[in-house]
Amino acid sequence: MLKLSRTSPGYSTSRNHERYGLSMVVGRYRVCSLVLAMMMAASAWGQQSAAPLPPGAVVLDHVVAVINGSVILESDVREEMRYAVLQPFSIDRTRNTPQRALQRLIDRALILQQMKTADTVTPPTPEEVKQRVQQLKGVIPECAQFHCETEAGWQAFLKAKGLTEKEVEEHWAQRMLILSFIQSRFGSGVRITPAEIADYYNKTLVPQLHDQKPPPLATVSSRIEEILLQQRVSSLLLEWLQSLKSEGSVSILDPAYGKVGTTGAGDDSESGGQA
Questions:
Q1: Cα 51 to Cα 20: distance, rounded to the nearest angstrom
Q2: What's the confidence (pLDDT) of residue 262?
């Protein structure tokens, strides 16, 4: 298993991530060619004993999975778990595990790789992203206690969750791009009616908010429409993802993360019918 370590006590343990920029939708999973060459030189994935760390060395990060040559680090998994707070509809805290987060990352990496060879999907404009993020503030249950409808409340929420506004907007822009691709590939001809949106609002969203005041239906209708559309294409998408895993090279190197599977319909991600 490849590990990244430091021996100098003055070495900073922080990583300056470039998160989810549209110009590097797939590249964020890649490391430099030197690291890949080192990994390929091993006689077998995960079968060769790792070299002992020097005395006093601290493991900073390590590769947990490889998807068609692209790598996912343990820090990527931790980051994905933090972003789950933005997906309030179906990821609860007890299900936001490292194993599920890794499966979401694997599914997303496969989709992004396919998007490189597919017809061009138009990226959302900054204004569209900001509009969706503004809608998001009204449907995150934890936002109520922070009063995210105010700028001060939104900033307090982000700080409490270890996020920045720029990170959220970049993450959401990538999500919108992936949703457009999924809809164009699997959702043609699928129509969500206003009655179905209202039914989801009354029977699913409002009960999840418990005693909190629900946002107006008009402000969340587009988000609900996305969820219902994703549910419709769920089975097609999961079948497609499974075929990509079978045809490609997907390896989980860290046994703590289990085996290659799929996120499933219960998770709020690009796969499983919910993004």
A1: 33
A2: 57
pLDDT for position 130: 95
Q: Are 22 and 123 in contact (CB under 8 A)?
A: yes
Query: What CATH code is carried by the domain that includes residue 190?
Result: 1.10.4030.10
Instruction: Kindly write down the DSSP assignment for every residue of 209-239, as one continuous string.
Output: TTTSPPPPHHHHHHHHHHHHHHHHTHHHHHH
Residue at 274 is within a domain: no
> What SS3 class is residue 3?
strand
Instruction: Look at residue 187 in the predicted model and tell me its pLDDT.
Output: 73
| E strand or H helix at 58 | strand 58-67
- DSSP character for 201? I
Segments forming the whole domain that contains residue 133: 3-257
Range 171-174, long-range pairs (CB < 8 A, 24+ positions): 171/19, 171/20, 171/83, 171/86, 172/86, 172/129, 172/132, 172/133, 172/136, 173/20, 173/22, 173/123, 173/124, 173/129, 174/20, 174/22, 174/25
The total domain count for the chain is 1
Query: Could you give the dihedral angle defined by the CA atoms of residues 62, 65, 71 and 77, in that order, rounded to the nearest 10 degrees?
Result: -70
0.85 cut: is pTM over it? no
Is pLDDT at 19 greater than 60 in this prediction?
Answer: no
- Given a cut of 80, is residue 26 above it in pLDDT? no
Pairing of strands 250-252, 58-67: antiparallel
Judge whether 272 lies within some domain: no
